[in-house]
Amino acid sequence: MRQLLLIFLVSLFNCQVALGGETITAHEIVGYFYSDGEMKASKGQFEITYYIEGDTVTRTRVYDFKSKKVIPDNTIYFIQRQLMSDPSQKLPLRKQVIRAIGQPGLDAVEILVIAETYIQSVKSTSNYFVISRLKRIK
Hints:
Order of helices and strands: HEEEEEEEEE
Structural class: mainly beta
Largest sheet: 8 strands, antiparallel, barrel
Number of helices: 1
Shape: globular
Radius of gyration: 18 Å
Strand content: over 45%
C-alpha cells in the first residue's frame, strides 16, 4: 500500500512539473512585409513573450522598440501535435520544433515555428502577409 501511495505521489509531482509551462522571450531579427505586389524588409522592431503550456502557446506581451511601448496580448495558438517534428512525438529526427496556429485578429491567421534557438512567424490577412524571424533570448 505504501508503495502505491509513493508511486501516486511521484506521478502527481511529475504531472505538475510537466503542466507548469514555459515562458519564452524572443527578439525579432528581421521581418518581411508583403502587400500590393511589393515586399519590404525591415530590421527587428519587436520583443515578444510567449507562454507554452499543454497544447497551447499564448502570446502574452509585445514590446515595440520603436515606440517604446508594451502591448499586452492574449492571442492563443494551438500546437499541432500530430506533426512528426513535434517534440512530444519523441521521434529521432534532426530538428524538433513546435508548430502552432492562431488567429491574432478578426482577419488574420498566424503560424508559429518554435525551435531551440529561434522562432519564426508567418501571418496572413486579406491585405498583407508578414514573415518574421526572432532569436530566443529566454
